[in-house]
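Schema walk-through. Below, the input block comes first and the output block second. Nothing else is stored per chain. Lengths vary across the set, and this one has 139 residues.
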Amino acid sequence: MFAFLNEIRQRWSNWSGDHEMENAIRRHLSDNGYFGGSAKLRTVRLAAVQRPGWLQVFRFEATARVSGDGSSDSAPVAVETDESSELPAIYHDLFGLVREDHRHNQTEIRVFRSRDQRTELFGRWSDGLLKLRGGRAMK
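--- output ---
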């Protein structure tokens, strides 16, 4: 019973609630060398907002498989064997930000391999915006 409740809690925690934003994140991952359609998105959360809510900054985490031959400049996070080929599948843990400006219908997405890079960009994007209380915007 506890496993079932934990599964429900985890699904609720990882639910983004915005289908268009989720599709935009997956397209961005696909355009940048990952299989975006099968990426596991986690903790998509509003981190900063400008009143009255037209400008919003969201944070998210993802685990995505590297597309192509898998050659990358860093070590893989997890390695699994794909049945369709002899090469191992390489997965990266990614940390991202989404900035949505509904006044101009613009969405900007940035993905990093490091939390520190995401935090630095969040500092620039959220300057002058209301941030999540208690410094939990980037946790």
